[in-house]
Amino acid sequence: MAFLSMSRRRVLKLGMAVGAGYTLPSQANAENLKGPSSHTKGSTLLVTHEAFLHHMTNTQERSARMTAIDAALSDAAFSALWREPAPLRGDIEAAILRVHGAEHLARIAAAAADTENLPYFFDRETIISAGSWEALRRAVGAALLAVDRVMDPASGIANAFCQIRPPGHHAERDRIKGFCLFNNIAIAAAYARAKHGIERAAIIDFDVHHGNGTQQIFYSDRAMFYGSMHQMPLFPGTGAVTETGVGNIVNAPLRAGDDGTRFREVMTQRILPALDAFRPEFIFISAGFDAHVDDPLAGLRLVESDFEWITQKLVEAAQKHCNGRLVSFLEGGYRLPALARSAAAHVQALMAGA
Fold this sequence. Notes:
α1 packs parallel to α2, α2 crosses α10 and α5 crosses α6. The strands form two sheets. An eight-stranded parallel beta sheet has the order 2-1-5-10-9-6-7-8, with helices on both faces. The protein has a two-stranded antiparallel ribbon with strand order 3-4. α2 links the parallel β1 and β2. 39% of the residues lie in helices and 14% in strands. It is globular, with a radius of gyration of 18 Å. It is an alpha/beta fold. It has ten helices and ten strands.
């Protein structure tokens, strides 16, 4: 267990370095842990939990990503942000099984239960550690809670950001891949349809890596729209413009070196018009911030204002088609300062549109 203890020491060190005064959610005072019962209409909800710190890895997808974002969102500019802890709920397994096979779920659960052999590597970059099973279930719980709050007119929640890990958009129905075990955003979309009667849902993915898992899960589903901007060629190798599903998939790949001008062009010319034509009843965002110019895992050259811009455009689309209904999920982003600034810009745009 030397790996886990070393990782915990590294997380604590990085957490202290990212921002003074940072506290774990469990240490926050009651004012910061506001519940859903007394806020005013038009709030943005943040769903997160300290359990996400305890999914230990030896990759760029590490616990310090949470501390970096938490430090940024502790600024006074986010005092109006509504906050709830990601729950454990009795319907998590059923929600997972709407998009993943039973064997997929059983494989992950069995690995988590085999504590003597943790951490366990599904592949060289996708790991399960002693704290991962709770983190995985709370990530799904965050997705379900966010959808419930946004769908409830009495909640006053207009949109939500799920600050969770591990990420999900590379997880296919029966395949673990690229840091991802359960596809959180696909689970949320399927839940919105099954529980709340949403007939047409859209997922927009601006992570620098194509969301192969989300595309694979909904490839033949005419009631689901998937639009992705990503770098190509790059892991996972999917996302060509010729991959169109049943007319519900729009891929807009960029090349290494492309900047915000090109990003805005492909969004304006390809993805946003297709989203508008689809007329979704709920919009979900795979919010990866690894297209940032400072990110070490790719070669696009986006900056914080680009993430703010696309968030504003998606909020506008949600207001036009969905009565504002929108839930965003953290995916990638691995240079901590750039991640923190980009996530903050994204959340500020959500708040401005709430």
